[in-house]
Design brief:
Length: about 400
């Protein structure tokens, strides 16, 4: 309880006077406005997302590739707007919470003053015992009136003390909400920074592409052919190594299939755009005809969560090939998880992370045409980082179906 009062005093000192003076209804009106803005932006994001569904082939023509990049930039700009409105809304909600704290401080002071007055009255009455109170009374009726008054004072004291406890509990809840608000705000600021960086990178890629091709279709087709050939070679090598590793691994060696041992890397309800294994899409698009992970839909800057406690064993960037920006985390349950195509990683090699911790943000890096998260689960003893076709630190290993553990 002392900690609560210390925090209370500290907040009283640092609360901005302008925030305390904010009209409650005006604050609520502005919060609702921001919420409506977020709904509109989210609707636009969802609409634009349909154009950016994950595939494995780049634009077949220069104009289609430029259009793809422009759509990605548009999606990222919408994400930036989303973060800015969300941050404004969080700031307004923080002001509202601070006003609630200020109001409860006043109520708490009033309740404490009321208790002090009741205690003072008891102290006065304590100088004469109940018998003397009866003897000093003018009549029997007066004596009962005094006894009733004492009982009312006692009941009033109990009531005020209970009210004080309620106010303190409400204050404690408000303090928790303030801390949660600040944590969300910090993450949203990181997400906003990631989105702005991604937008710059996408614009830089577009300019580089136009410079390289000089807006000529023939030169673009040459670039695409070279990139596809390199990517196909990388994919084939990964598929070959992982197939050999699987063949040499006994099923008994793999961790038991326990649903829930891993947490979701994206929020509950996030659409899965491609599952694990020999999917229809994998058989059409991949030389290996096998997809070694699960793809989750997402917009650039969306949160990516660690699936379990563990140690970050690799943070890398494959440029426009393979996994792009990725994070690899080794867990104590003999599983290792890969998070690929990120826009930004916010963890470093050797760092310990907790289940549900944000480790980075959804992006469109690597060999993709739209933003999404590629999530792979490996059997830890089999994981290696190797160089393939000049691309360093490419994770390979015995993969398992993530849905057996999520």
């Amino acid at each position: 309880m002392k900690k609560v009062f210390k925090t209370l005093i500290l907040l009283t000192v640092i609360l901005p006077s302008f925030a305390l003076a904010q009209n409650v209804s005006e604050l609520q009106r502005r919060i609702e406005e921001r919420a409506k803005e977020l709904e509109q932006i989210n609707a636009e994001l969802k609409k634009n997302q349909a154009v950016l569904e994950t595939t494995t082939a780049r634009g077949k023509t220069l104009s289609s590739e430029v259009g793809r990049i422009d759509n990605t930039i548009k999606q990222t700009d919408l994400g930036i707007q989303q973060s800015e409105v969300q941050l404004d809304k969080l700031g307004l909600e923080l002001n509202s919470l601070q006003n609630n704290i200020y109001d409860k401080e006043l109520v708490l002071k009033e309740k404490k003053d009321a208790v002090a007055r009741i205690v003072q009255t008891f102290q006065v009455l304590d100088n004469q015992n109940l018998l003397m109170t009866f003897l000093n009374s003018q009549s029997l009726s007066d004596s009962f009136d005094e006894a009733t008054r004492l009982q009312e004072l006692n009941n009033g004291l109990i009531t005020e003390l209970r009210e004080i406890e309620k106010v303190k509990e409400a204050l404690s809840q408000n303090f928790d909400e303030v801390a949660e608000n600040k944590e969300i705000t910090e993450n949203e600021n990181r997400s906003l920074k990631s989105k702005k960086t991604a937008a710059k990178e996408q614009l830089g890629y577009k300019n580089q592409l136009l410079t390289q091709t000089k807006n000529e279709e023939v030169k673009y087709q040459q670039i695409v052919s070279e990139l596809e050939a390199k990517q196909q070679a990388i994919g084939q090598e990964i598929a070959r190594i992982e197939a050999e590793l699987r063949a040499a691994t006994r099923s008994d060696d793999l961790p038991s299939k326990i649903p829930g041992i891993l947490g979701l890397p994206r929020p509950i309800g996030t659409v899965v755009t491609q599952s694990y294994g020999a999917t229809d899409f994998a058989q059409r698009a991949y030389s290996s005809q096998f997809h070694n992970g699960v793809d989750y839909r997402g917009a650039i800057g969306d949160d990516i969560f660690a699936a379990a406690d563990g140690e970050v064993i690799a943070v890398g960037n494959h440029g426009q090939t393979q996994y792009g920006k990725y994070v690899l985390i080794k867990h104590a349950n003999n599983l290792t998880t890969l998070y690929a195509h990120m826009s930004t990683q916010i963890v470093s090699r050797g760092q310990q992370v907790k289940r549900g911790q944000v480790v980075g943000y959804v992006g469109a890096t690597g060999y993709v045409t739209g933003p999404h998260l590629h999530f792979t689960v490996y059997w830890s003893p089999s994981v290696e980082l190797i160089t393939i076709r000049g691309v360093p630190a490419v994770p390979v290993g015995v993969t398992v179906n993530p849905f057996d553990y999520l």
